[in-house]
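#struct-help
A.M.: can someone run this one for me? Single chain, 310 residues.
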Amino acid sequence: MSFPSMSRRAVLAGGAALPLAAGFAAAPAFAGGHAGAPNGVHNSFSIGDFSVATLLAGTRTSDDDPQGTFGMNVSSDEFKAASAAAFVPSDKSQFFFTPTVVNTGSEVILFDTGLSAAGTLKALNAAGHAAEDVDIVVLTHMHGDHIGGMTDADGNATYQNARYVTGQREYDHWAASGNERFDGKVRPFAEKMSFIGDGDAVTSGITAVSAFGHTPGHMAYMLESGGEQLLLMADTANHHVWSVAYPDWEVRFDMDKSAAAATRKKILGMASADRIPLVGYHMPFPGIGFIEQRAADRFHYVPATYQLML
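D.P.: on it. Structure tokens below:
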């Protein structure tokens, strides 16, 4: 199923009245080993008066030593046993790349820009938004799969009407790091960027939550509207089993592994205790689920089914 692009006026006028719909399609591989979303794979739902859509910007299957990425500090036997118990292979991993777009009724806000402009825009258009409709782009952190869509293939700004928001601590780290991708994709937008910290608001009903460790200033974001909540946890946990069920397992992508483990336990514990649905950027698409705490520092990811449709 594909959905036509809607004008900015139509989208904002529709607000929370936009129907709950999802367009799912097989995503064939394209150059670079990622997979595209030619029919705009997305999943739309409501949180209070907010219309939300998760966007499948790409997928990738890897057989490059999953334990070397997700279980660096445990034995091979432990990793294999845990994987088998959870019905996932221990020799392959599946990656999902899932930005989120939120229409508050007055602003359209995109959280992260995906691997590339092309992949994200296909899903964004299918969810009823054109690039020019986006008012705010929020960057949870500066890894390449989150900032890759800031510009198109020609180096032009993808979201030309947007302002940009990110964590001050995150920006300062990368600005001093000499990172080529950051310098090409993010630094050119510095004059249009606002910097926030823990507890600061992006806009009414959307609040930053510190989730440091994956990167020095990695942020999650809490959405609150009409008495409902949704946590965008970004890369707090990168796998629904290896990172959620075993938050102390070290992840190669985490820059500060002990801080990342502490953050996982804090964020997952909060989501479990308060029964808050969450979106994980790398959770199996559509990336939405709940967290069940099964023991001290042990959690279980429960994929959402129809709960947010009711």
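A.M.: thanks! The domain at 8-309 is CATH 3.60.15.10 (Metallo-beta-lactamase; Chain A).
D.P.: also worth noting: The chain has eight helices and 17 strands.
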